[in-house]
Amino acid sequence: MKRIDCYVPGDVDPASLAAQAPVASVHSVSAPLCRTSTLRGIADSAKEEFTLIYTRHTALSFVRFALERMLQVADDTKADLLYADHFLSKGGEVIPAPVIDYQKGSLRDDFDFGGLLLYRTCALKDAVGRMDSDYEHAALYDLRLKVSQTGRLEHVGEYLYYETETDLRTSGEKMFDYVDPKNRQVQVEMEQAVTSHLKVVGGYLAPVFRPVDLTLGDFAYEASVVIPCKNRVRTIGDALRSALGQQTDFPYNVIVVDDNSTDGTVDVIRSFLDDPKLVYIAQDPTWHAIGGNWNAAIHHPSCGRFALQLDSDDLYYDENTVSKFVEAFRSQQCAMVVGCYQMTDFDLHPLPPYVIEHREWTPENGRNNALRINGLGAPRGFWTPLLREINFPTTKYGEDYAVGLRISREYQIGRVYDVLYTCRRWGGNSDSDLSIEKVNANNFYKDRIRTWELEARIALNKR
Predict the structure, then answer these.
(1) DSSP assignment, residue 14?
(2) Are 53 and 33 in contact, with CB atoms under 8 Å apart?
(3) According to the model, what pLDDT value does residue 170 have?
(4) Contact (Cβ atoms closer than 8 angstroms) between residue 342 and residue 420
(5) pLDDT at residue 360 tops 90
(6) What is the mean pLDDT of the chain?
């Protein structure tokens, strides 16, 4: 049976689709698919039970009976949007490209569905009919959010088609796209779409925050720079010099937490122990990860009123970073502060996109937009009494994001738009060049964090 109308970008050869038995028609679309007007045109013209939209601008080919299989799953599950694992032609090699299951918290606008999206046409028409904004960039994002509000998104965990990968950058190079200033207008539209979605599903939070009393607690130090590390012999010395060389008019210290390094990192740390500001914590051999190392620091009796992040391969921008953090806490009366950073290579030469300001975080809507983006920015500072109540999850990925979301549910997050931090990008970064499977695992976990947070916010609004 001919059950599918297909829509592909105008520069894609439609032959492979036209040859598929379930396909009734193939339409070349010259206008960008990311425009609302384009999707309205597709919704108006689609006649068959299902509508296939291919979002890539490269060749598409199929495993035998692929579309028949997707239709079979659609019939069995009554799903309104289906997507599948596939193969990528990348650099002359064909590799598997699995994707992940969609969750309630899969609110990232860069969620990877692959290029092939199979919609139930009635659900597509209904969702497009509810589009009340005209986007130039966010229409496909808006569409799947609206489909998810009333229907089911189904991942077919089978390799069903082939497409070509055109972005050959490593995972570490791709991860900053959402904060690249050149993409600012795209991000504004994506924020508008997710905010609208959160209002519909009951997860939107108005800009009303719980007050904080920053005088609570008896602290010998006003601030602590927290440096968790493991096997960072090449960089930990630079980080410690940066932290210990801060100029302040209040007492501060530096807490370095080593998680069983085996490469000489401990020897470098010990060479700094003659500085009375340094507190060295050596972890036992059980599982800690970055989150557990942070928990060891913030619960140490010498931890200051504010706990300030410094990764073991990065540097503070100058000797005033700790003072600027503390001043931001005091002037903005907030529970967490996020600054700006400069991207560099290992030798501290600036790299594009250079200064990252995280303009996606605003006092009015940052806590909602935080459910869309993949991080809350850096460097981060926390009000220790609250952090001791929340704690970090004992993970080595997403631990800071989980804490930031939890804080933003109730409390204001302040901003410093000065550059406070130098973020080194080099081969030793833990996220520099991850496999598809590892990227998927990381994204699935962050989507789970978002799901839990969204459910908590919906429950909060109901109360």
Answers:
(1) -
(2) yes
(3) 58
(4) no
(5) no
(6) 94
